[in-house]
Amino acid sequence: MNEQSILSRVLPQLEQGDDIVIPPGDDCAAVDVGGDRLLLIAADQVIANTHYDTADTTPQEAARKLLKRNVSDIAAMGGTPAHGVLTIAAGFKDEQWFIDFFEGVADEARKWDISICGGDLSSTKSCDEVCSLTITGWVDRDKVALRANAKDGDSIFCTGELGNSYSSRHHLTFTPRVEAAQFLCGEFTNTMMDLSDGVGLDLERMCIASEIGARVDVDALPLRNGANIDAGLSDGEDYELLFSVPEAKVDALISSWPFKELKLTKLGVFTNLISGIQYVVHNKEVEVEYKPGFDHFR
Amino acid sequence: MNEQSILSRVLPQLEQGDDIVIPPGDDCAAVDVGGDRLLLIAADQVIANTHYDTADTTPQEAARKLLKRNVSDIAAMGGTPAHGVLTIAAGFKDEQWFIDFFEGVADEARKWDISICGGDLSSTKSCDEVCSLTITGWVDRDKVALRANAKDGDSIFCTGELGNSYSSRHHLTFTPRVEAAQFLCGEFTNTMMDLSDGVGLDLERMCIASEIGARVDVDALPLRNGANIDAGLSDGEDYELLFSVPEAKVDALISSWPFKELKLTKLGVFTNLISGIQYVVHNKEVEVEYKPGFDHFR
């Protein structure tokens, strides 16, 4: 299945109402429900033995991952999570599996003040359970961040470290960057997304949405222990923030960054001079080879 | 898996925020987002070879069923559908399957003015695709129908016909009762649910929610062609409305019912004199044996 090819054919057929102020294509859609806030909405799945290995992942960990990857989508828009609706298709699970899974759901929901207010449980004939969460959130109309706002000369920043998410178990243990995103939005950026499919592919998406090119300093990539450049660009499941900062605000951002435990890295610049992404070392273009590992529809 | 047993253990752990004015337990949850309208939210799945037989169901039909069973949950609260978020976990499907499935999604969404504004596509190793839809809707605060409002002496009504949904293909071809529900809500009822798991089980749920008993006239059951009493009570997937009407409004309802093609049937009465459901023929109690076929979490 080539997801991008499918979506390019089917998305244009899905008509959007006048209340949809941010249509599919960003980390969340946004709905105008009246008032100063926009209602954000997104959905994501975790599938056994696709998004986690049942051999070394507890049901609680799988549940936490499901919630956190959805929270990360709300964070990417500068929002605050609000409600969740959960469906599970599971085969051959005993009651204890559900008790354990929902323990993870309840704990993680409590952390983010999410009301899990509906859902559905069904049986499948497959061993590999499919768990799907729809999340909503709220964001101030004048603070919402999109992928489409990057401008010529803006710096490209990311939080945290990149690559080797799967074997380091970062994909299970990560913290969605809600607090950092809210610090950034409105004040320092209005162009943001979460890094779920690798910065190589995700930055390309931001460039396409913003109709701009990017130059990335390969030496700057904040690689996680065990990650080489290929892994840093393509492993995916980093769940960090990728965002643009106007040149005039870069120094203020760096000096005021309040999250001592969270790396803040300038990866490069957005530029009108090129199309696509140019990778450089000491300002000299280099070839990087990477194979995008993940390709999801958000 | 015993769904009811699981839910009774896990639901109390899911904390609900102050904005959740109708918590899990009805066909939809309802969220106070300010203003006169409540935001309804619910989710349901269709799973290949559980909810439809891939041998005789087109992808378009499966997609329509997914949307319609969610629309039916919005209808059950007296609401109007608004937004949908769709996730698909599919294995071994070619691109044409997705094109066909989304054709069904887009057509059905257009009928009900639903903006399908987000989602996720992922691969599984299972042959049986799992498709999950979260739906939102709007309902006037003073017109919303719950399961919990039935009163002693209220008549029990349902729309349409019951039983034999699967082999008659009603489960694929049905029309969600949005229009009928909106006619009823506020004016004739504030106690309603959709019949998805068979009137035997669903009426029991309404009785428990309303803390009341019910007497059902077995001869009155509007059986679909090919359905016996057992099937009418237990087959499920009728997607009709079950609702209570105060005695004083029964004649007005019957005389003003504007849907010529849609049966309206009085099944019996709610009563404080008994607990549980009593089935009668000519006012004499009879034993009915039925095995609930469906047991979903909504």
Keywords:
298 residues, alpha+beta, 6-stranded mixed β-sheet, 8 helices
Quaternary structure classification? homodimer
Query: What's the Cα radius of gyration of chain A?
Result: 19 Å
Quickly count the helices of chain A.
8
- The end-to-end distance of chain A, rounded to whole angstroms, is 16 Å
**Range of strand content of chain A:** 25-35%
- SSE order of chain A, as H and E? HEEEHEHEEEHHEHEHEHEEE
Strand order, main sheet of chain A: write it out: 8-10-7-11-9-12-13
The count of strands of chain A amounts to 13
**Shape by Cα distribution of chain A:** globular
**What profile does the largest beta sheet of chain A have?**
7 strands, mixed
**Averaging pLDDT over every residue of chain A, what do you get?**
94
Q: Name the pair of protein chains with the most residues at their interface, and give those residue counts.
A: A-B, 73 and 73 residues
Low-pLDDT parts of chain A are: none
Helix content of chain A: 25-40%
Structural class by helix and strand composition of chain A: alpha+beta
Summary, kept brief:
The first copy, chain A, has helices spanning 3-10, 59-76, 95-111, 170-173, 178-184, 199-210, 229-234, 250-256, and strands at 20-22, 29-32, 37-47, 80-90, 115-123, 130-140, 155-159, 192-195, 213-217, 240-245, 264-271, 277-281, 284-285. Chain A is an alpha+beta fold and 298 residues long.
Q: Could you characterize the architecture of this molecule?
A:
- The structure is a homodimer of 298-residue chains.
- The first copy, chain A, is α+β, with helices and mostly antiparallel strands and 298 residues long.
- Chain A is built from 8 helices and 13 strands.
- Chain A has helices at residues 3-10, 59-76, 95-111, 170-173, 178-184, 199-210, 229-234, 250-256, and strands spanning 20-22, 29-32, 37-47, 80-90, 115-123, 130-140, 155-159, 192-195, 213-217, 240-245, 264-271, 277-281, 284-285.
- In chain A, strand 1 (20-22) and strand 2 form a beta hairpin.
- The longest helix of chain A is centred in the first third of the chain and has 18 residues, at 59-76.
- The two termini of chain A are 16 Å apart.
- Chains A and B meet through helix 1, strand 3, strand 4, helix 3 and strand 5 of A and helix 1, strand 3, strand 4, helix 3 and strand 5 of B.
